[in-house]
Structures are given as C-alpha cells and as structure tokens.
Amino acid sequence: MASQENGTSASADWPGRYHHIDQVLNTPGPRTDPGFLAGDGVKDFLRNQAKILVIGAGGLGCEILANLALTGFKDIHVIDMDTIDISNLNRQFLFRQKDVGYPKATVAAEFIMKRVPGVKVTPYFGKIQDKDDEYYMQFNLVICGLDSVEARRWMNATLVNLVDPENPDSLKPMIDGGTEGFKGQARVILPTITSCYECSLDMFNKPTAFPICTIANTPRLPEHCIEWASVLEWPRVHGEKKMDTDDPEHIGWLYKIASARAAEFNIEGVTWSLTQGVVKNIIPAIASTNAVIAAACCNEAFKIATSSAAFLDNYFMLIGTDGVYSYTFTHKKRDDCPVCGGEALEMTISPEMTVEELIETLTEKQDIQIKKPSLSTSAPTKQIYLQAPPQLEKATRPNLEKKVKEFVQEGGEITVTASTLPFNLSLRISYSTPA
Amino acid sequence: MASQDVETVTTALATEAAPDAKTRRYDRQLRLWAASGQNALESSRILVISGSATSTSILKNLVLPGIGHFTIIDPNQVTPEDAGNNFFLEGPSSIGKSRAEEAVRLLLELNDGVDGKADVRSLEHVLENSKEWLSEFTIVIAHNLEAALLEQLASLLWADESYTPLVVVRSAGFLAEVYIQYHEHAVIESHPETPQSLHIDKAFPSLLEYSTSLDFENMDVTDHGHVPYVVILVRVLEDWKKTHNGSPPLSYEEKQEFKKAIFAMRKKSDEENFDEAVAQAYRAWAKTSVPSDISALFEDEKVRSLSPTSPPFFHLLHALQRFATEQPSHALPLTSALPDMKASTESYIHLQTLYKAHAEEEKAIFKSYLQVPVEDDIVDAFVKNSHALRLQKGKKWGTLDADPASLAAALETAPKALAIHLALTVLSSYVAKQPADVPLSPTAEALTAEALTLLPPGTELPDEFDEALGEVVRAPTADLPNTAALLGGIVAQEVIKMITKQYIPINGSCLIDLIETWTGIL
Ligand SMILES: [Zn+2]
C-alpha cells in the first residue's frame, strides 16, 4: 500500500487529527533510540499496518481499546468471554445500563468504532483457548487486561511457545496489566527474551483458602460461616444443582444459611456484601487505577510500535493508597521457569511423601499453583496419576496412596501437566534424609 | 435439621434484603471506601478548567464512581486537533462546537446519577467579576492553565484556609506533573496496612485474669491445642516477668529462651496454636506505646490552642492525648479487631468478647475527655484508626519555584523529579511570553536560560534536566492520549482521596515520566 501524505490512508482522517501524537513521531527526544525513523514511515506502520490484539474487554480492556484507538492503531482485535453485568458500570466506561447481558467484546468494539472514526475493532466473544497459533501469529503485539491468573498463564505460555528463532515475526511482545483496588502493575514481556509471566508467579498472592476443618468444626470468622454455607451446605441441600454466584436468589440463600451458622456460634459480621465477596472472590476495582495501568500498557504498545521512545524494561508497579508510590524495575528471568527457562525445577521432598501429598503441595506452592495436576515419569514413561479421562483416572487412583519414591529415584524427573496450562512442568526430585 | 426447617428458622436472622441497583453498580468501589466515602463523593462538586483530553480523562474517572456535580469551564470551540485526541468529543462532528458543552454531554452518558454543566465563560472573566463562584466547589482542577492565570487562581484559593483545594495538572508529551494545593488535610480513615497493637505486653485486667486462670498442664489435649496464641503469649510473658524483675525478654538470647518456654508448654509436637505463638512472640516484647507520628500531632498548634470552635479532628486529637497521658497503659485506646488465629470457636469468641468489652470501656473513657460532642461514627473511626491518623500540611503552588535554594537542594536529592518539574515550569513561562496564535517552537537553549534564572547563580544542570527538557521541546503542546489517560487516573485517584478523606493524598508534586514509566514525588 502506498503511503500517502501524513502516513495515513484512511479517508476518515482529517487535517490536524494527529497533531498531538505527531509531535513525538516527527522528532526524536534525547533518549530516543537512534534507530527511530521519525516521520511518515513510522506513522504508516502505526496507522496502516500494525495489528494489535487486546485480551479482555473489562475494566482494563475498555480503557486499552480507547487509548489504542486514539493513539492511531486502526486494526484492533479484542477477545472476551464475558457478558456485561451491572457491577461493571462503575468503571467499564464503554458500557451502559442498556448493554447489561450483552457480550463485552462486541459492545466495546461497536462503541469504539462509533466514537473514533476509521478504527476497525474486531471482537471475538469467546475464550482465548478457542484460538490457535495461526490466529495469534497475525498480530504484532498483544495487550492483556485480564483478571484471571489462569488465562494470563495460558496466553503467556502460548506466546512463548510461538517463538521460532528462525522467524523474527514469531516474537510477539506481550504487555500485561493488572489491578486490585488502588494497586496495579504493568509489564512488558518479550517471550523467551525477558522474564515471562510464569517467571513471576510467586509475586502474586493466591486468594485465601480456609482449611475445611476450620469451616466444619471451629468457625471463628464470618467468612468461615459463608464458606460453610457455600462449600458444605449448598451441595448437601441442593445436590447436583450448580451454584450460580450471579444469581441473587442463590446468594440470598447462602447469606441466610451463613447468618444462621454465625448466630449459632456467636460470630458477628455476616452481611450480604461479604457473602457475595467471599463466594465470588470479589476484588475491589475502580476506574482510576484501571486508567493508570491501561495507559501505562498502551504507552508501551505505542513505544514498541513506533520506537519513538524506549519501552519499559520490564515491570512497573503502582501503589496509590498512600500518595502515589511506584516502582520500576527489571524482573529477572528464572532459569527453572517451566515456560521459558528450560531447566527442571528442583524439589526436595520427604521419602515418605505420597503421590496425593505431592499433588497437594503442587497445588499450594506459590511458584507453581497448578490446579488438578496429572503426574507421569518420562524415562521410562509411566503414568503416576491422571486426572482425566475417567478410565485412566480410575486406573491410576490407587497410586495416590503410594509413596512418590516408588515411581521416581533420587534425581529422577516427574512431568506435571494440567489441562488448564499449555505447558509441562519438569520436577527433579530429591529426597530429604529423614531427621 | 431438614433444609426447609433451616430456612424457616434462619430467615429471621438474615435481615438484609438483596442490594438495590445503585449498591450493585458501585459494589466494587464500596469495598474500598464504604458508604461514608460514597456519600462524600455524591455530595462533591468539581470544577475543571479546560475541556482538554487530560481534563475529560480526569472527569471520566470521577463521573464513573459517582461525584455529585461537575462543571467544565472552557470558552473554546472544538478544533480539529481536539477532535483527534479527546475521547469525549465525537470526532469531526464536534469540530466548531463548544468544547465544554460537547465534553459535558458525552461525560454525562457515563452515569445518570451525576449532574454536569458546561460554562463557556473565560476564567479571566470569572476571576474579574465573580470569583466568589469558586467557593461553590469542593475542589478545583486546572490542566495546562496559562502561568499568570494559574498564579492568580492559586493565590486566590490560598488566601484563606477554608478555601477550595486546587489541583494543578501540567503535561507535555511524555512528561507530566500533578500538584495539590491545600493548607491542611486530616485523614482518620487512612486504611493502614498494619493493624493496631493487641496490647499483649500491656494485657488489660480481664485478659490477664483469663490467661493466668488457665491450667495448661491439666487441660484436655484437644482444648490445649485450641488456646489462642494471644492467651498463650500473655501467660508466658506473665510467668517470664515474675523471674525477670518484671521485664520482658530483651536480648537476643532472652528472646530465644522465651520462645523455648512457649515450645516447652506443648503437649504434642503438632499444636499449631503454639507454632503461631512462637511466630508471633515479638508481640510480647514489642512495646505498645503511642507511635511517634501520632505524638507529633499532639504538638500541633490547633491541639495546643484548642477552642470550642476547633474542628472535631483536633478535639479528637486532644482527647487522644489526654487518654495516652492519663490512662495507665500510656497507649492508644484498645481496638476490638482481633485477627484470626488457630483456636476453638468458644475460646476465640471468648477472647474476642474480652477485647470488645475492654475496647468499649476505653472508648467510653476517651469520649469523656472530649470537650465538644462528636458523632459516634466519627469517634468509632477515630479510635479504630488512632495509630494511623494523618495530618498533612500543604504549601501554596509556586512556593518551590520562588525559592532558588530549595530548587537547588531538590536538584541534588531528587534530580529526576525536579528536572521534570523545572522543564514544565520553563515551558509554561515560555508559552506565557509568546503571542497567541503563533505555533510554539521553543528551543532548548532558550528554556535552559530560563531555568537558570530560577536557580542560584552558578548552578550546574544535571543530565536529567537535558533529558526532560528535550522532551518538552520535542512536544511542547502535545496532550498525548496515553499521558492524558494516565493523568486521568492519577488525578481522579487523588481527588477521590481528598473528597472522601480516606487513604492518603500526595503532599506536594507527583512527577511522571512515561518514557521510563516512572513516577516520583517532590
Ligand atoms: Zn518464564
């Protein structure tokens, strides 16, 4: 495509449209890389060639889409599997009351196209896992505005796996943002080159889980009573019927049962709001923090796409509760990262540990956090325990009670897989000497 | 009990109905600032000077959480340039229309509960003819306001302590600054990360009595494994003091010995409550006293010269000082917040009841020291947060730039932050000197010369200054969408903290560099 005057070709552009942005695209700054080619070439790439993928059209996603559109990206794709809820409206500013119940991706895309002329936003209402490598290969950049650790891990691993050293285009920078209340972070991941999402898994707290014995026998907090209602009483009373945490009747039932439990034990503080917060694991979210983090992410996308300034290396953390505190640093790559490191993760366990106990440890360990892992050995190949399919689960179930050392020798490796993650984790097992 | 019976019996206990639409809409933010914060927001009136991209980004993040009212004052028409970078304009179709009216119309779509108004007067006109109008607002925000006008506005709003706080926002390209001008800002609900002391080293009588009454040795094994660690620590400390002249463990060796004494009480090796007691043992020797930040507040002039008309915050501080001085604990009042710990329901609830009862007693004493009536909710919040109260003292906008010695000192201690501030300052003084309608093309030489006039003679400007200056020279009038969006978030966050009087706003300037994705405070 021939580049026209101003580096733009879309008829929707009007003179002066990019007056603000062009100031940093026409001239380098003191810290701009000498490789920056100011002028039409970079504008043409940004406005006519760059193709960018946004994961999530929620709190961060709405902001990201608006920023990208205003900075001149014209070919934007967005994936989101959710529909709009009334509790989104305090921050997800592309949605209105009338949109409640409709897919976020579609409504957001339509709004952006209506508000910012000449921008094409292609929505996909579904899961990131529905798409294959070929789909992800078409983009220059990926920005994630997700609230799920699981989805981020999947996206991260997919982009790392996509890297083909022979093909420079296969390296897709991933910019990831996340917020919680007044806190947030934005980071740039160059798959296989910089620290990846998995490398930093231990930095993120898992939601508090209460031990079942506390919930069942020694409740002390209102949260314990709520967990009792949702984890134990719901299945006991309703059997197979699934609990829907978005259904006010279900929340109402849990609130009632939890209140009764609390009264029985003289525990104060069960409220509707707390009940909902506990069962849905609600994270506080506000427009302002999302705006900061989304802007930081989009600014990195803009700098990467244009080279108009150096991009973030590689982590920006913000805490807004006491003044404005932020910390910018280089997060280090982990050699034993199961996604980008290539080295097996060393793990020392007791020679008495059973397979079941190992599985529990893997689920809880901060730097691993694997839900429902399946275990096998590779040399020789032997299944230790498989979560699915049902026949194999049944066949391997007796192994749960056996000791790990019956399957792996000192220094041997166990391969851990989980259906939610597109990668294998290798564990090199050592046994502690009994005390 | 069959489930039907459970439901019949319990309906009476769960008294709250399902939340209404408004509560559901604001659920995710109510978890941060509660109904009290929300009420404050809904009563607020915000004035924003200019309908720039940055201004509308700020307002977006204030309209969404539900401020009461906003006004945009801006006499200008939408230019093609505005239509390109402002999300709250409708592209070319807004060109030529009033920028304030277009922005207000589109911002109001975000929230039915918010009232908004476009004012097409110029600020000069207001300052000349009806400056008292400014007092209608809770807070005033100005983005890239021309230097002389900003100085006039800042001086006006600084003239009396009761006047409206002013948020000064400046940006050019990848650089930005946010400053809040206020005389004083008191925060009760600062939402501290650290909880109040459990007073283990100064156990109140009922706690001490309970703890020493327990017969650990002859206790049932199950009960023994469920004694809360607080009770264990109080007991071990009490026993310890008897053999150590009334002192808690002080040296490293003593502390290790103290931990051994806890372990020695175990009946089984896997008693988690004793593990917790060892992990929390520092609470036995960490002295519960008035934190120095708090005792410093007692010295505030307004506490020392308290009068019946002093604001409640100072009456509360005065009562707190009396409490800390006259009560035998010489500490802040106890709060009833007990963290979760390994314990049986009965022992935990019993302990919680002891804490609550004593906390109520101390609160009653605290209240008796108050010389004026203060609402119960405020007293409760004050006592609960008495270890984390904040009283920030601000300065007038421009104070720093008027003091060469301070500028030079900041150049040493915070070169990057000061460089950005200085670059934006000299840019705005340059702009003020240029005739309107002429495209700006400042040079680094001219701006550097301007900067040197603000600094003591012979000051050497660091590399950071050249880096910052190069950016403002490169993009002197650029209101970049990403910079605007980031400022929109930061400024709205600070304004929310100011209005709700919850969490802690900046004191001074926040400088932003979006090349290195860096922020700093000056
Ligand atoms: Zn990695």
TrEMBL record, chain A:
<dbReference type="InterPro" id="IPR033127">
    <property type="entry name" value="UBQ-activ_enz_E1_Cys_AS"/>
</dbReference>
<keyword id="KW-0436">Ligase</keyword>
<dbReference type="InterPro" id="IPR014929">
    <property type="entry name" value="E2-binding"/>
</dbReference>
<comment type="pathway">
    <text>Protein modification; protein neddylation.</text>
</comment>
<dbReference type="GO" id="GO:0045116">
    <property type="term" value="P:protein neddylation"/>
</dbReference>
<dbReference type="InterPro" id="IPR000594">
    <property type="entry name" value="ThiF_NAD_FAD-bd"/>
</dbReference>
<protein>
    <recommendedName>
        <fullName>NEDD8-activating enzyme E1 catalytic subunit</fullName>
        <ecNumber>6.2.1.64</ecNumber>
    </recommendedName>
</protein>
<keyword id="KW-0067">ATP-binding</keyword>
<feature type="domain" description="E2 binding">
    <location>
        <begin position="347"/>
        <end position="432"/>
    </location>
</feature>
<keyword id="KW-0833">Ubl conjugation pathway</keyword>
<dbReference type="GO" id="GO:0005524">
    <property type="term" value="F:ATP binding"/>
</dbReference>
<comment type="similarity">
    <text>Belongs to the ubiquitin-activating E1 family. UBA3 subfamily.</text>
</comment>
<keyword id="KW-0547">Nucleotide-binding</keyword>
<dbReference type="GO" id="GO:0019781">
    <property type="term" value="F:NEDD8 activating enzyme activity"/>
</dbReference>
<feature type="active site" description="Glycyl thioester intermediate">
    <location>
        <position position="213"/>
    </location>
</feature>
<comment type="function">
    <text>Catalytic subunit of the dimeric E1 enzyme, which activates NEDD8.</text>
</comment>
<dbReference type="Pfam" id="PF00899">
    <property type="entry name" value="ThiF"/>
</dbReference>
<dbReference type="InterPro" id="IPR023318">
    <property type="entry name" value="Ub_act_enz_dom_a_sf"/>
</dbReference>
<dbReference type="InterPro" id="IPR045886">
    <property type="entry name" value="ThiF/MoeB/HesA"/>
</dbReference>
<dbReference type="GO" id="GO:0005737">
    <property type="term" value="C:cytoplasm"/>
</dbReference>
<dbReference type="InterPro" id="IPR035985">
    <property type="entry name" value="Ubiquitin-activating_enz"/>
</dbReference>
<dbReference type="InterPro" id="IPR030468">
    <property type="entry name" value="Uba3_N"/>
</dbReference>
Automatic annotation (TrEMBL), chain B:
<dbReference type="InterPro" id="IPR000594">
    <property type="entry name" value="ThiF_NAD_FAD-bd"/>
</dbReference>
<dbReference type="InterPro" id="IPR035985">
    <property type="entry name" value="Ubiquitin-activating_enz"/>
</dbReference>
<dbReference type="GO" id="GO:0019781">
    <property type="term" value="F:NEDD8 activating enzyme activity"/>
</dbReference>
<dbReference type="InterPro" id="IPR030667">
    <property type="entry name" value="APP-BP1"/>
</dbReference>
<protein>
    <recommendedName>
        <fullName>NEDD8-activating enzyme E1 regulatory subunit</fullName>
    </recommendedName>
</protein>
<comment type="function">
    <text>Regulatory subunit of the dimeric UBA3-ULA1 E1 enzyme.</text>
</comment>
<comment type="pathway">
    <text>Protein modification; protein neddylation.</text>
</comment>
<dbReference type="InterPro" id="IPR045886">
    <property type="entry name" value="ThiF/MoeB/HesA"/>
</dbReference>
<keyword id="KW-0833">Ubl conjugation pathway</keyword>
<feature type="domain" description="THIF-type NAD/FAD binding fold">
    <location>
        <begin position="26"/>
        <end position="502"/>
    </location>
</feature>
<dbReference type="GO" id="GO:0045116">
    <property type="term" value="P:protein neddylation"/>
</dbReference>
<comment type="similarity">
    <text>Belongs to the ubiquitin-activating E1 family. ULA1 subfamily.</text>
</comment>
<dbReference type="GO" id="GO:0005737">
    <property type="term" value="C:cytoplasm"/>
</dbReference>
<dbReference type="Pfam" id="PF00899">
    <property type="entry name" value="ThiF"/>
</dbReference>
